[in-house]
Amino acid sequence: MKTQEFLNLLESNKDKSLVFEYTPNQYVGANYHITEVKHIKIDSVDCGARTDAWNETIIQLWESPKELDKREYMTTLKALGILNKVGKMKPYDLDSEVKFEYSNASFHTAQLFVNDFDIQGQHLIVKLAVEKTDCKAKDACGVTEAPLTVEAMQGEPCCTPDGNCC
């Protein structure tokens, strides 16, 4: 989901509580805070020696240990207020992908992308998911979608000095 789409989603659901599902049926606690918004510029080179660049908006969620008994979630209106204030200080790239950085005692720190959302009663539930790593240069590296068997690879070098990579 793009940053503009996320802000629009909040804007159109101002009367809802904002709930994050970080893995199926596991929710960020109602004691969460938005503790940081990062405007990330990625400048990369993939394993096929191709360059790429893009921006991301990363919103960090943190559960306050002093508010473990809290039962009411942050409202979308409050989250929108926080994010709008950030946008005035450091403008967003509204076309950038929005991700959420989160962890807890039983879930590793991860940057999660928005997979979907659902409205259940007075809750706007933002469904997050882990993004799997992938080879962006499959064609340049000769990577096939189906894994090669050991027999199919015998006699062929894994990498060559002239650019065969991965």
Explain the overall architecture.
The chain is α/β, with parallel strands linked by helices and 166 residues long. The chain has one domain. It is 19% helix and 40% strand. The protein contains 4 helices and 7 strands, in the order αββββαβββαα. The protein has helices at residues 3-11, 76-89, 138-141, 150-153, and strands at residues 17-23, 26-27, 32-45, 51-63, 97-104, 107-120, 123-130. It has a 7-stranded mixed sheet with strand order 2-1-7-6-5-4-3, covered by helices on one side.
Topology summary:
Layout: H1 3-11, E1 17-23, E2 26-27, E3 32-45, E4 51-63, H2 76-89, E5 97-104, E6 107-120, E7 123-130, H3 138-141, H4 150-153
Parallel strand pairs: 1-7, 4-5
Antiparallel strand pairs: 1-2, 3-4, 5-6, 6-7
User: Main β-sheet, in a few words?
Assistant: 7 strands, mixed
Span between termini: 29 Å
Strand order of the largest sheet: 2-1-7-6-5-4-3
Total individual domains: 1
What keyword list fits this structure?
alpha/beta; globular; 4 helices; seven-stranded mixed beta sheet; 166 residues
Short description:
The chain is an alpha/beta fold and 166 residues long.
